[in-house]
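Hi R.,

As promised on Friday, here is the backbone we talked about, encoded as structure tokens. Could you run it through your design pipeline when you get a chance and send me back a sequence?
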């Protein structure tokens, strides 16, 4: 039992360590995935920032006054600038264009390097989130808009075109939804590796849990009497090594004339009586008491006397004796009168060893038998 307890403690410790590792791996995996995705996204955002700065520089090479008026009066200039950033169009940057806001708070095209089929014409209106785009005009700072509800675009990078300390247009980079899918594909292999580790540890944890449950069941079965479900002699031997006699009083119980019952009704009848008496005793004693099948028809009970009266064993013993005496035992439609004799050692702490205290209870038991049975003798 001691060895089994140590093994179970080791298993429980391992389970706790594995549980901690599982939780840590889960959060580390999530954090790593987020960091990796954020890192890749930031690289693309940084690239969009660099490209938009190049476009801003190209525009300012040829435009020094009003952006809208200059581009309106010079179609060739518009074409020249658009051709320069046509090369930036890729699977990641789906659309690159420049809008301005008119007096009616509408955003219209100034430049567009998109596919000719999708290209917006100069001064053509484009429906955008006016409030968010106007923020660039107000702050004069770059902004990133994320499109959670769109199936084709992931994000839009916005950069104000500032000429003569006034925002005269907004450069926009639309990121294709393919980009986010590309990021997910980059993260996926790493994610899988973590999951394989996670599954391995989880299976190992299940195995250890099975071992703990199996060991607990083996331990329980090895110390329980299968007939009465009381503790057996194997448990008793180990219990004696750690029992503190100062905490207990001892009852020794013997079924009167049990041999006669076995001879009359056979072992099946005797087993039935043992089971029923065991159930009666269990209903009367407390959870903190220790109930042991000491021999064939003998039971030993260590009554926990903490926070109880000095005569707690006497009171419990008398209840057991009286309940069994009044109980109607029956086997094959035959009523059987059963009584028990009980010896109660009320001060086992006076003895040097638990065995000596048990012998005292046994001696008191035989005094009860010699004095006519069906009685409790205490000392």
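Update: got your reply. Pasting your designed sequence below so it's all in one thread:
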């Amino acid at each position: 039992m001691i060895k089994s307890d140590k093994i179970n403690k080791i298993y429980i410790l391992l389970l706790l360590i594995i549980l901690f590792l599982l939780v840590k791996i889960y959060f580390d995996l999530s954090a790593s995935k987020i960091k990796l995705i954020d890192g890749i996204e930031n690289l693309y955002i940084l690239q969009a920032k660099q490209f938009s700065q190049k476009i801003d520089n190209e525009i300012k090479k040829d435009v020094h006054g009003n952006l809208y008026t200059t581009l309106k009066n010079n179609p060739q200039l518009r074409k020249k600038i658009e051709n320069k950033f046509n090369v930036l169009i890729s699977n990641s940057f789906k659309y690159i264009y420049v809008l301005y806001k008119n007096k009616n708070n509408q955003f219209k095209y100034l430049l567009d390097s998109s596919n000719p089929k999708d290209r917006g014409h100069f001064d053509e209106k484009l429906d955008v989130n006016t409030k968010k785009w106007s923020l660039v005009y107000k702050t004069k700072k770059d902004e990133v808009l994320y499109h959670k509800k769109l199936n084709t675009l992931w994000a839009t990078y916005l950069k104000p075109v500032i000429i003569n300390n006034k925002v005269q247009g907004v450069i926009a980079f639309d990121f294709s939804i393919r980009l986010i899918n590309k990021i997910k594909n980059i993260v996926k292999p790493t994610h899988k590796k973590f999951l394989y580790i996670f599954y391995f540890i989880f299976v190992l944890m299940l195995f250890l849990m099975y071992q703990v449950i199996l060991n607990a069941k083996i331990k329980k079965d090895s110390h329980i009497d299968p007939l009465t479900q009381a503790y057996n002699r194997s448990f008793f031997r180990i219990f004696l090594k750690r029992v503190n006699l100062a905490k207990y009083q001892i009852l020794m119980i013997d079924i009167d004339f049990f041999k006669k019952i076995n001879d009359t009704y056979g072992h099946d009848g005797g087993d039935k009586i043992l089971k029923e008496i065991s159930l009666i005793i269990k209903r009367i004693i407390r959870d903190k008491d220790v109930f042991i099948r000491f021999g064939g028809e003998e039971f030993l009970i260590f009554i926990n006397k903490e926070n109880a009266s000095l005569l707690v064993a006497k009171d419990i013993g008398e209840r057991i004796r009286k309940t069994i005496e009044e109980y109607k035992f029956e086997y094959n439609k035959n009523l059987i009168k059963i009584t028990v004799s009980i010896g109660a050692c009320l001060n086992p702490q006076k003895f040097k060893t638990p065995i000596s205290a048990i012998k005292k209870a046994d001696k008191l038991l035989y005094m009860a038998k010699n004095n006519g049975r069906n009685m409790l003798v205490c000392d």
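One thing I noticed while checking it: The longest strand covers residues 153-163.

Thanks again,
M.
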